[in-house]
Design brief:
CATH architecture: Alpha-Beta Barrel
CATH class: Alpha Beta
Order of helices and strands: EHEHEHEHHEHEHHEEEEEEHHH
Number of helices: 11
Structural class: alpha/beta
Bound molecules: S-adenosylmethionine
CATH superfamily: Aldolase class I
Largest sheet: 12 strands, mixed
Radius of gyration: 19 Å
């Protein structure tokens, strides 16, 4: 059986949130400054995650991204990645991290077989970084990025959520970075997940502005889309070492090619980032037949479109989870 939904979309990508705790509290991710974290006994255990992935791999999951909260606050993460890497059918494992603990773990992650890394970095200004993360230190992330470069995670993707009054003035600096370093800067449109309608309305910035700035820097070309590529459209300037990507969930909906399922830290399969519908799997994590049914049910519940832009003005955000509880 393949994981094909009602709209003929084939799913081969599972994003796994291994914890909903985070050492940072970014405004756009945890809008109220805190959220109720899942108690430890209700989190999925390593063995439960491995079983759920094993069944997913039998059904066609090939690519995994480990996310959170901050995945590196989960004890034993490199060991879990090492075990996931051994599952037949899993070809690629990525990690999405805020990078703060990377200098410490990059070596172990490499040894465990992690293939790729996405590191969140919304600004290169120390004061702004501390403000948006509510307590982070920019230097820790920069050291993490250096460690990722040293251990040869290629390409290193840096996620920049674009916020109107906050980092639009840094677009040029980020773009110029791609000229001299083999990094991929991925600009992401701010999404209204959780309870943050008014903040979203004030700070949302369409990514067309990135292309406006890019044109003032020089000629750039779009890369051919790779197999299993994510939703980013990727471009490079002439003779640049790196590239830049645009992820437009709002202004250029990518739902028609969505190949993702999500597993929350408290054990729910979620087929759309924005919608409430979820299928509980913690209680059935050791029952293969029940898990197959749960994957089918999650696919059945997947809507055609997330409708983020529209529903914002109609009924608010359908999902009650904040982004750090879903994993992005
Ligand atoms: N802690 C890790 C990190 O910082 O990358 C992983 C979890 S975080 C939820 C995953 C990604 O979601 C990050 O790149 C973050 O910038 C992005 N994100 C969080 N809230 C968002 C929002 N409201 N709109 C767009 N992206 C968001």
């Amino acid at each position: 059986m393949n994981l094909v939904d009602r709209f003929e979309r084939k799913h081969d990508y599972l994003r796994i949130s291994v914890t909903d705790r985070c050492n940072l509290l970014c405004h756009y991710c945890v809008p109220n400054g805190s959220h109720d974290c899942t108690s430890f006994h209700r989190l999925l255990t390593d063995d439960e995650i491995i079983n759920i992935v094993q069944v997913g791999a039998d059904l066609g999951i090939k690519k995994i991204c480990i996310t959170g909260g901050e995945p590196l606050v989960r004890k034993g993460l490199p060991q879990l990645i090492g075990k996931l890497k051994q599952i037949d059918g899993i070809e690629d494992i990525a990690l999405t991290t805020n990078g703060v603990f990377l200098a410490k773990y990059a070596h172990e992650l490499k040894k465990a077989g992690l293939n790729r890394m996405n590191i969140s970095l919304d600004t290169l200004n120390e004061e702004k970084y501390t403000r948006i993360t509510r307590n982070g230190k920019l230097q820790n992330v920069l050291e993490g990025i250096q460690a990722a470069i040293e251990y040869n995670f290629q390409p290193i993707k840096l996620n920049v959520v674009l916020l109107k009054d906050y980092n639009v003035d840094e677009i040029e600096t980020f773009l110029r970075w791609t000229m001299k370093e083999n990094v991929q800067i991925r600009f992401i449109e701010y999404m209204p997940i959780g309870d943050q309608q008014s903040e979203w309305s004030n700070q949302y910035q369409s990514l067309s502005i990135v292309e406006d700035v890019a044109r003032t820097i020089g000629d750039y070309v779009e890369h051919k889309r790779q197999q299993m590529a994510g939703p980013a459209r990727v471009y490079s300037f002439q003779n640049a070492k790196g590239s830049f990507g645009l992820i437009h969930p709002i202004s250029n909906e990518f739902c028609t090619s969505c190949n993702r399922l999500r597993l929350t830290a408290d054990g729910h399969l979620k087929s759309c980032l924005f919608w409430e519908s979820e299928v509980p799997v913690k209680q059935i994590a050791y029952d293969k037949d029940e898990l197959i049914e749960a994957y089918k049910r999650a696919l059945f519940l997947k809507p055609k479109n997330h409708e983020m832009g529209q529903s914002l003005y109609q009924q608010g955000t359908p999902t009650t989870r904040v982004m750090s509880a879903i994993g992005g």
